[in-house]
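User: I'm putting together notes for a lab meeting next week and I want to include a structural view of one of the chains we've been expressing. I don't have a solved structure, so I'd like a prediction I can at least talk through. The sequence is below, exactly as it appears in our construct file.
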Amino acid sequence: MAYIVTDENYSEVINGGKPVVLDFWAEWCGPCRMVGPIIDELAAAYEGRAIIGKVDVDENDEIAAQFGIRNIPTILFFKNGVLVDKQVGAAPKSVFVEKIDKLL
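Assistant: Thanks for the context. Below is the predicted structure for the 104-residue chain, given as structure tokens.
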């Protein structure tokens, strides 16, 4: 299961020393529901090596505004607390695996 990231715990997560992947999503978003299970699978596959988290944009507007999230799903990839890659829209699992492997 992916880690739930909120406006309150974001700084702690992003500066935790591991690569971080954040899925910006909403319950009402069809493509988000397609990507959600992939994100959960990745969280299990990369447990201990990377933090794979989900940010509900309806409940956490500060983080969404900070990164200018206008379309969801948007998946951001961080290394050493710095944004290094982004995926806007649904994509196959292989795309995410390739991007995460580059972070490790």
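A couple of points you could mention at the meeting. Residues 24 and 55 are 5 Å apart (CA to CA). Residues 30-45 form the longest helix (16 residues).

User: Perfect, that's what I needed.
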